[in-house]
Design brief:
Number of helices: 12
Mean pLDDT: 89
Number of strands: 8
Strand content: 15-25%
Radius of gyration: 17 Å
Largest sheet: 8 strands, mixed, barrel
Length: 233
């Protein structure tokens, strides 16, 4: 009710041109509330039956901050299974919200996890299909985190495919991970999908990913979550 959600953003870098291509929007509770941690915030909201209004507020605050900063690049917004059943996604309110803030829906990327989509294929296929008609783009997150459904990926044909930090960790030392990533890049290319490496934490990992031809990446080595002004600058 007080709208005291803090919107933070982590940069997503073009690894080949060494520039920021977009940001992933993240949300935190107000300082000193005990709800700063996102997992705790959403866990308590779930127990209170407030996940949908909380996610609406987080989404709105992120978009407001992007608009206020005049951010003209990509903004990745996370969507949970609960959000997919929210009327915001079903009656055109999201597109109106984006346009009212003078943002372009083509710069907003709706991000779902691989498992979330696979467990709710019929629901997400319908919702994401409608969002695409309105100009939004789609990213599938957490590829390689322990669950894999390539048929689901082929069905959704995401514009972006993010592979998990467990895949990135020490990839410069692991030939099997490198070979698997090569296969993912080939698969993604055939779908006209851009691959994003998450969890980059060292120069060695970054250079290995560049050598393999990964186009985009994010992680603490490239930039920690912060106010969007620190990235826009």
């Amino acid at each position: 009710s007080e709208r005291r959600i803090v919107a933070l953003f982590q940069p997503i870098h073009d690894l080949l041109e060494s520039k920021v291509s977009g940001v992933e929007a993240l949300s935190r509770g107000p300082a000193g509330s005990g709800l700063e941690d996102a997992e705790r915030l959403f866990s308590i909201a779930e127990k209170a039956g407030l996940v949908i209004p909380l996610e609406r507020l987080c989404r709105r605050r992120s978009l407001e901050e992007a608009a206020r900063a005049g951010w003209g690049r990509l903004v990745f917004i996370n969507m949970s299974p609960a959000a997919a059943q929210d009327s915001d996604f079903l009656d055109g309110r999201l597109i109106r919200e984006v346009l009212d803030l003078y943002l372009d829906p083509r710069q907003v990327v709706i991000e779902v996890t691989e498992r979330t989509y696979a467990d709710n294929q019929e629901l997400f296929a319908r919702v994401l299909g409608e969002l695409r008609k309105e100009g939004f783009r789609v990213a599938v997150d957490d590829l390689g985190s322990g669950y894999s459904n390539l048929s689901a990926l082929a069905d959704i044909r995401p514009e972006f495919l993010k592979f998990d930090h467990l895949f990135t960790k020490d990839i410069h030392r692991n030939r099997i991970k490198q070979d698997l990533l090569g296969a993912i890049l080939s698969f993604a290319m055939k779908m006209d999908t851009q691959v994003i490496a998450e969890g980059i934490e060292s120069l060695d990992e970054l250079e290995a990913l560049r050598r393999l031809g990964v186009p985009l990446g994010q992680g603490f080595y490239l930039g920690r979550p912060g106010p969007i002004e620190t990235i826009a600058a």
